[in-house]
Structure prediction request, 583 residues.
Amino acid sequence: MKESQEQVIQANGLNFALKLWQSTDGVPTLALHGWLDNAGSFDAIAPLLDTPLFCAVDLAGHGLSEHRPEGSHYYITDYAADALAIADALQWREFNLIGHSLGANIALVMAGIFPERIKKLVLIEGFGPHSREADAAVSQLRSAFAKMKTYKPKKQPVYPDWATMVEKRMQGSTPVNRQAAEILCKRGVKAVSGGWSWRSDPRLRYPSPLRLTEAEVRALIANISAPTCLILGDKGLPLEFMKVESRREKLVNLHIATLRGGHHLHLEEGAEHVAATINTFLVTK
Amino acid sequence: MTKTTMPWDEQHFNVNGLKMHTKMWGPEDGQPVIALHGWLDNAASFDLLAKQLPDLRICAVDLIGHGRSDHRPGWGHYYFNEYVFDILELASCLGWTRFNLMGHSMGAHISVMTAGIEPQLINKLMLLEGFGAPSMVSPETLPILMQTSFRKTVGLRQKSPPLYPSLDAAVQARINGFFKIDPPAARLLCERGTQPLGEGLMFSTDPRLRFISSSAAGHEEFCAFVKAIEAPSCLILAEDGVPRDEVELQKRISLHRNLRVEHLPGGHHLHMEKQAPDVARIIADFFATTWQSLETIK
Prediction:
């Protein structure tokens, strides 16, 4: 499985763009990218994986997929509902699930809601949604509303050329190397008058109105039955940020692999090691 | 129809890209009140009260997904916080920088959240048979609740909504609904809350509303909103209303800085039934005391 194919599928009321790598029949794998990335996130590892069918999704508001309708927000639970609807539309009953960063957080929620459908769970640089304490609900909603009021959809940054765009992505909040930035930009930018702009929905950058509490995240983790592999970059996100230590005790069958690399280790030099780790994990009983 | 024959104005507003219908009651210079109905009800919920409170400028809304208002696009959930955003946007459409909020049941829950995030906007808060959603969940039950909700969404796509041969049949269905209600009250809600379909009628509420919401805030979060409220508030509880968790209720009451609690005989929809005049008297008395303008509170 070397070449990927493009497919558009309707699920949960939106059109989703998918990248499919297919070789034979067997347990398929669904892959969910991180915040502001797109299905290109898995370009480096997909050809190296021993999985018969690999489907990388452009999440709602990202890549070539549709944005949520006006007035809507991007909730983790709706992403999970989307991904399950995509699996339904592909007629996948049971599947493996791979997620990176935000995608890992969504994957974890899915595996907690429908444990019987997920055979194996691979989390790269993400270990469940950001949570907040109950008391922070008020300030969270207040800041989301304040941001919403200032939303100006027509005022998005425009970059003069492709090279500037790639540079911008390289220096993003999670820096990546040139090759990774080019892959992400290929699917993540669009031509506008005067140059190039991001294709992703600007509303993705706004504070979410809603967050789960830590107790709710733990309840979801405790409900996961799939063997789980957590892959971390040694220069990735801080472990405390992902709450790895406090959350891991809720998972019965967890394997943690720390590999060399940053937050996007699966799209940079670490891709081969990430793929090898996943391949070993998928064949382990 | 003109104003002389109708005691209210039907008005609609564009809120966050969606059309929101309202029934505007009373004199334009009356004390402004935004009234929010309960789950699966609509603006008609306040018909009886509005008639008995002729001095108030009451804006009774059809919440998004209910009555004559638009449904939320796509297949997402109905998150409570989005109702809050809708109400704040509506207030800005009305040009109201300070107003009273009145909510029944789920509308009371939304009122509490609204008053909690924008306390300076709210003069007084009137809560009818609601001080936190009855579908409140403990963290441990969240996965199963979400599973049910997701499954029902899938099921819904393959199902057509129930069709009623006549308004009477829809009224009968409403009388026997989840919250029992008197026939005249059911008729008021059904007149506004149904639309023709083929030879019959269907409820105009978004079928997605019938799922157990996966977004119902937990008890602790609701308490955070209660603590943030600054508006003097009044809570009316019906003796035969929805079953309540007394321990939780008392905790919420104790967290509010300025809350008056009234108990009245009647059911969950007491404000639409024979106790409506008693409810109206309490509301009139509560709103009649000092109106605090933005200037006086600063």
